[in-house]
Amino acid sequence: MATMKDVAHLAGVGVGTVSRVINNGQVKATTRQKVEEAIAQLNYEPDNYARGLKLQKTFMVALILPTVWHPFYGEFAYHVENELAKRGYKCMICNSDGRADRELEYIKMMQQNKVDGIIALTYSDIDPYVTSSLPFVSVDRHFSNEAISVSADNMDAGRLAAETLMSKGCDVLAYIGGQPRFPTEIGKRQIGFTDTCNSYQKENYYLLVPEPFVDLEGQLETFFRQHPDITGIFTINDFMALDVIAVLNQMGKKVPEDVQIIGCDGIRMASDRPLVVSTIRQPIEEMALTSVNALISLMNKEEVNRYNVLPISYLEGSTTKKVV
């Protein structure tokens, strides 16, 4: 097996220079290129265990997800893992199942130096455990103690959904979503939607279902019977849109002929499958890359933007009318 000395000899540099390249230290671009070419030619693989002991790092990042069953989380994890691999890190996927005790176990792993940092999608009460000294990036949630957060522009998602439904002829609008136990950035979707409807003086309603859902179908049916004139709906995510469609169909209403629906997330059942519904697309890949870059900057004790909001877009699916 090739050694670091072999790489240094082939590149015409010192061993220290090779070490700086491997550890992302400061070297000239031309020198870095020579070293990387030598590494590739010799198929050199650094001893990450020894490297970690020397640098007091594990080169392991924990990614905490509420579930691995949801396509949004799967796509996000795919991009996070790819980007971490490019930066020399391994990714440990942690399925919390929405349980705070599991999330706290993963935080303790970091405190015990078993991982170097954490990227988390969490909707639990772990605020007291997330400190500014902890390399922790939160997705879709902004903690009160200045921890790093990354999210799509949820307020703008609500605005765009409302304006899109109105442009397609909807006069009576509604927002339907869950009501989590703790505040998240996702709640801004309803605020943006309702504010936009009110600014256009459009009749609008909303239904916030407490989580975990109990008799969701019954609550939806009651809501639609109370407001039979609704013609446009924005849901908190694409899966909720599917639940809404099922109830409307049972009540004899057609989508999009009678009621038009826009979800949020932009999920697909597979990369080569069409959209599930018309949707506000979150920039999942950009959110993943921003999360990784922010975490690595934190771990390297570099300056980092603590509040990252990324732009959204509308994607047409089968649950809205085509406007000619």
Throw out a few tags for this protein.
434 Repressor (Amino-terminal Domain), 12 strands, single chain, alpha/beta, 324 residues, repressor, Rossmann fold, transcription
Oligomer: single chain
Main CATH class of the largest domain:
Alpha Beta
Can you count the beta strands? 12
Mean pLDDT: 89
Q: Gap between N and C termini, in Å?
A: 65 Å
* Tally of separate domains: 3
Question: What's the CATH topology name of the largest domain?
Answer: Rossmann fold
State the share of residues found in helices, binned by percent: 40-55%
SSE run: HHHHEHEHEEEHEHEHEHEEHEE
Description:
With about 325 residues, the chain is an alpha/beta fold. It has three domains: about 5-45, Orthogonal Bundle (434 Repressor (Amino-terminal Domain)); about 60-150 and about 285-310, 3-Layer(aba) Sandwich (Rossmann fold); about 155-280, Rossmann fold (3-Layer(aba) Sandwich). It has eleven helices and twelve strands. It has helices at about 5-10, 15-20, 30-40, 50-55, 70-85, 100-110, 155-165, 190-200, 215-225, 240-250, 285-300; strands at about 60-65, 90-95, 115-120, 135-140, 150, 170-180, 205-210, 230-235, 260-265, 280, 305-310, 315. The chain has a six-stranded parallel sheet, sandwiched between helices. Helix 1 (about 5-10) packs across helix 3. The model has no long low-confidence stretch (mean pLDDT about 90). Keywords: DNA-binding, Repressor, Transcription, Transcription regulation.
